[in-house]
Amino acid sequence: MPARLNEKLLSPIAGVVIFALVAIAGFAYVKWMPYYAKAFVAQSHHFIGDSILSGKAAAPPPASWSAATDYAIAYGKAIWQALVLGLILGSGIKVLLPAHWVGAALGRIGFRSVALAGLFATPCMMCTCCAAPVAAGMRQSRASVGSVVSWWISNPVLNPATLVFMGFVLGWDWALFRVVLGIAMVLVVAHLAEHYAGPQAAASLEQDLIPEAETSQDNLLLRWIREFMTLAIRLVPEYLVLVLLLGAARVWLFPVLGAHDGIGWIVAMALAGTLFVIPTAGEVPIVQAMFALGMGAGPAGALIMTLPAVSLPSLVMLRRVFSLRIRLVIAAGVALSGMVAGLVAMFVF
């Protein structure tokens, strides 16, 4: 009997160990070591790079194919390694981790799963698009809607490296602002998404999207490669198209970088930040450049909260695991959180 029990446990435990080793090695190479070095640059120079929106110019370029491709290339260079890691881990969850284990840890509705997923996200430090494949894998492995949303948004919003960069570049008061309002955003948006998902969404996923890895007897590596390729083919082409479109449209989303303060600009920047896509910590040089051109604290607060949280490409990437209603609730929650943050910043700073 013990021999049979050990035989049954060997495969799941081995899968968890392999997944953990790949995740640790991947995050160390793609995130932890580069950000550790970048923190010293932020400390000594109070600068981590030019704004990805406009480079050294005062405004984004006019809408054109060149503007689209230039942005896509700059953005791609910044995130491609993290995107590959996200695809590896997103497919790995389905192949290596037993769905009932994921469900037991993160499948409950309520604060516990939301908080636990947020804690798991803290060391990952991924941007919203690179975190999307992992979020999809979590949801398909029976994690609750609230826990998936919490993990997904906590990655960019509560990223400790970004908070350090923000402290050295923009000031520690802005870093504290991000932490407090970021935690509130994660909890509120996750709760709203879970509330509007309802029990039917959870039931359909449990029946229809249980990973094939639990029943397939194929070679583990082949299953992993197959899942990776399936995920990449589903997500990357549409992702690239949307990045190109947003790269061309940035002149309309951010028409005047030196925006003044006021409720109108807060609303506009909250909406633009919710739609637009940036690499990890890209909001820090963007806001720094806008401050230099005279932007007020209100629009800055809205951008600091919404730019990293979600984007149009990342919302589209999760269309197979979240209904349109849930994604609209998430986007609306992020945009409204950004507007509230802008109003708070306007009176605090």
TrEMBL record:
InterPro entries: DUF318. Keywords: Cell membrane, Membrane, Transmembrane, Transmembrane helix. The keyword Transmembrane helix applies. GO terms for cellular component: plasma membrane. The keyword Phosphoprotein does not apply. It is a multi-pass membrane protein. The chain crosses the membrane at residues 12-30, 82-102, 114-136, 148-169, 175-193, 239-257, 263-282, 289-312, 324-348. It is found in: Cell membrane. Belongs to the UPF0718 family. This is Permease. It comes from Candidatus Gallionella acididurans.
